Structure formats: C-alpha cells, structure tokens
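QA checklist item 7 of 12: single-chain prediction sanity check.
[x] sequence parsed
[x] length recorded as 74
[x] structure emitted
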Amino acid sequence: MINMLLDESRSGYSASYAYDANGNHASRTVNGMTETYTFDCGVKLTQVSLGGVASKTLESATLRGWREGRRSLP
C-alpha cells in the first residue's frame, strides 16, 4: 500500500517518489526508470529492483542506514 507520492519535474528531468504506510521509501521513478525497494517486517531493506528486475538482494542493510544517506549498496 502506497501512502504518499511526491513528484518533481523540470526541463529534461522528472521524478516521483512513493512511500509506504510505514514511511519507507517504496519506489522512485526518474526519467521513466523505476527502482523499487522491498522491506522485511517494515524496517529491513531486503531487495532493490530496477525496471522490475531484482538488481540487488540485501542480507543485512537496514532502513536506518538508508535513511542516514548511505545510498550505495553493499
């Protein structure tokens, strides 16, 4: 269930960000490419998918680290 959707756009750039009911960053779409985030029990980031294909499965990354700005994947 998506709880909130934010959009932004300017010349040559458009983005939308969706958040679930727990406040987790559920997905982002930038210039038509969608990245989707999957969480376990609402707090642990477990998978990142790009364009519908799982690009990374995470064993120990947590939402806290993601929110603190550590956006690179292990």
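[x] summary fact logged: The chain has one helix and six strands.
[ ] second reviewer sign-off
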